[in-house]
From TrEMBL:
Keyword match Amino-acid biosynthesis: no
Coiled coil residues, start to end: 177-216
Keyword vocabulary terms for this entry: Coiled coil, Repeat, TPR repeat
The organism of origin for this protein: Candidatus Lambdaproteobacteria bacterium RIFOXYD2_FULL_50_16
TPR repeat residues: 428-461, 472-505
SUPFAM superfamilies, sorted: TPR-like (SSF48452)
Region (Disordered): 617-637
Protein's UniProt name: Tetratricopeptide repeat protein
Pfam short name (any one): TPR_19
Highest taxon of source: Bacteria
Amino acid sequence: MFNFLDPKGTKQVPQKAIDLLEHGKKLLKSRLYKRAMIEFNKAFQEAPEYCTENLDVLFKQYRTVANYEACLSIGLILLKTNPEDYKLATVLGNCARKQQSYMQANNLYRHALKLQKDYKMAFFNLAASLARVEKYDNKVTATLQPFAALREYVLPDYMVEPDMFDRIIKDLTDILAERALKEVMELQRMMEAKSANNELLEVHRLQREIQAIEVRPTTPSFDDVKEFINARLLDLKDGTDYESRKQYIAYLYNMGLFALKNGYALYALECFFSIADDPNYALEDIPWLIILGKHATKVPTAKRLMIAKSVKKKISGPTAVLTGNPPATDPETSPYKDEEPLNQMTDLLREDPSDRYLNINMGVMLNIEGNRLMAYKHFLAGGVLLEKSEGIYRRKDIFRKAVEYYETDQLKKALKLLKTLCEEEKNSQALWYIGRIYLKRNKWDEAVDAFKKIQEINPTSEMAKQELATAHDHFYQSGEEYFNEGKYKAAVGQFEKALNVNRAPDTIKRTAAVYRVLRNKVKAAELQAEYDKILESEKKGEMEKIRHEYIAQGQAFLKKKVYHKAIHNYELAFRMKVDKDIFMILAYLYKSLGQKDNLQHLVLRWNKMVEFEEKEKEFQKQNDGTTPTRKEDEMVM
């Protein structure tokens, strides 16, 4: 066996190591990655330095062509040579994640973090792996960036009037400013009178009062806003009409959001529970808003103040600042101290993992609790969903935006939003618009798929039925056009598409005829048999309808005691089908009327009919699965 110098020319490399390395490379090319890894490991044991240098070059080559499975096989050997390389561990974590090997990826990211606990790339990728988000490195960072420092709940817009509290606070500020001005003017008038009487002590006292009023804030407190809203709620509470009750719920909902945003969690919960208890209104946000309210009661005051100082930009809520501070909170004195809001939110997410508000607010709650990794997991899940929906949180708003795009002929944007909706829920309306977009693009196959999915959701959907009928006619007409041009293969392709939409008897018959032109006897026979079966079924249906008419007439004559006509109609029905009920009625009538001969003849006929039916069933059972007899259809040229 020959030995070779290593690349540096300082040490001889065993031939065995070279052979093992080359064999490993061949196995990689054959996509036998695990076996290749075993060979590389053996080669490494023979010549560590030589293998490391060669595998490093090979790793870079496979990484360039994005063969991540090969990279993983090579990289794990390289990591073995340098277990302190936290950057390589992170890259290998990404490679494992590309193969959906999330547990292996998580272990590699955690290994990197053990080596370098402040390495953000490993931390962010670990969060992405936990969230099952297909983003890596800088793209993970970009998605996280708007949320990473978020410690304030993300709340919906106010109902009916989004800037409601801005307006109320402005109005109350104006009222308080006007009230302060009047007080100052009154005190100045009194001061002038006291000054005229040379009452200097009183003048100084009044001056101090004026100064106190001038420095007094004119912005309202939470209680001022609450009092204003409560007055409006009292006006609406006793309203019996729908609009009054709707407005009442809207004010209550808005007040709950406002209270929660400004640190008055217990009052927010009062509002939300009142809505939840109303049997006539069900707002989809209430369950998770109640959870946020409970969580807020358990955030210590010191932590809440620290969060308030660190937040530079509010996500929602009024732009004006209220006078005064919210009440102190303590997890030990919270009325919900024995509840677990995080677990409650997890339960909601389990029911709807694609809800944007749930994911982002779960991240906020975890961020407040100091669990950054799990917070980032939910921020990434929610962030990716928001990227798909153009930053829109509610699905009904996503749908509304998609329709807006559709109506302004921005079909690409509309299709993206509509597909996003259909990935998250069964949505017949979204599917209808998807189908219409494909029709506008003349993509009939894709349109048919969309309309068929509507039928899976709602089998009785009229809009899907109409659209599919139009598609069937389109394919049928295209088939006829191709046939008339002598393009029989293209024609049969269109007829098959029509059958995929609706297996109408005439379409089956026409398709069979075209297959005969193409001399495809097997396919023509199959379709002809299907057509004959449908005709037979339709014939049986018509016969059954006539039979029921005879039975109905027989019952009518029986009620009138016109027995001979009743027997006549029952006999007609009996001759059409083996029916034990009709047999029993006729037997009863013949016996009651003393017609023994007719009764005996009836019994004989019954026995023969039953015997024949049993033989027919046995024959069908024996011939089940055999090719049915083909009836030649007329040739259509």
